[in-house]
Design brief:
- The structure holds two protein chains of two kinds.
- Helix content of chain A is 0%, strand content 57%.
- By secondary structure, chain A is mainly beta.
- In chain A, the strands form two sheets. In chain A, strands 2, 4, 5, 9, 10 and 11 form a six-stranded mixed β-sheet that branches. In chain A, strands 1-3-8-7-6 form a five-stranded antiparallel β-sheet, with no helix packed on it.
- In chain B, strand 5 and strand 6 form a beta hairpin.
- Chain B is mainly β.
- The model of chain B has no long low-confidence stretch (mean pLDDT 95).
- Chain B is globular.
- Chain B has strands at 5-7, 10-13, 19-24, 31-37, 44-50, 53-57, 64-68, 74-78, 87-94, 102-103, 107-111.
- In chain B, strands 2, 4, 5, 6, 9, 10 and 11 form a seven-stranded mixed β-sheet that branches. Chain B has a four-stranded antiparallel β-sheet with strand order 1-3-8-7, with no helix packed on it.
- The chains are: A mainly beta, B mainly beta.
- The interface between A and B is medium-sized, with 20 and 18 residues.
Amino acid sequence: GQNIDQPTEMTATEGAIVQINCTYQTSGFNGLFWYQQHAGEAPTFLSYNVLDGLEEKGRFSSFLSRSKGYSYLLLKELQMKDSASYLCAVRDSNYQLIWGAGTKLIIKP
Amino acid sequence: KAGVTQTPRYLIKTRGQQVTLSCSPISGHRSVSWYQQTPGQGLQFLFEYFSETQRNKGNFPGRFSGRQFSNSRSEMNVSTLELGDSALYLCASRTDLYDTQYFGPGTRLTVL
């Protein structure tokens, strides 16, 4: 079967750095996505990785290792507005998105 | 460019009724996917339409159906509503299978 694992919840302090991990086992691989979802709102696209390595976009970076079936999202200089759920999704061999359950990130002052 | 729009944004129905939700994708996007999201649950995939054809279907009962029109707008129908159908229903569009999905604001359905 296809499976994506993320921690259910994480807590971090304003101004700090947090790393959210995602491991996957899917039928084929055609890219990995990270989305941010604030409570009661729709998910918004954050990043996309299809090759191994680090993609940096401002305070957010995403890393991929295809051989290990592993990705992480790194958030720097945390702000209160970063409190949200972070969803990891893998596009499989059928170009279908397989979603993790999401990681709820709580930022404390 | 306008984003994905969904109507209605909120809906209250009673058990046994049926409901139709609408999604208008971003202009030029030919793929529309539907998801159900309940508290504490991840996104549960319902189905995807591409150029008016259903490409993929998730593990939902036959009470859940959908369709896509020639202008790429899509509708989702749920018949014989159950209390467990209360959820946020999200629609997402992309230009083609190789593109990123972009989500609409969702329709919050409450079944009483």
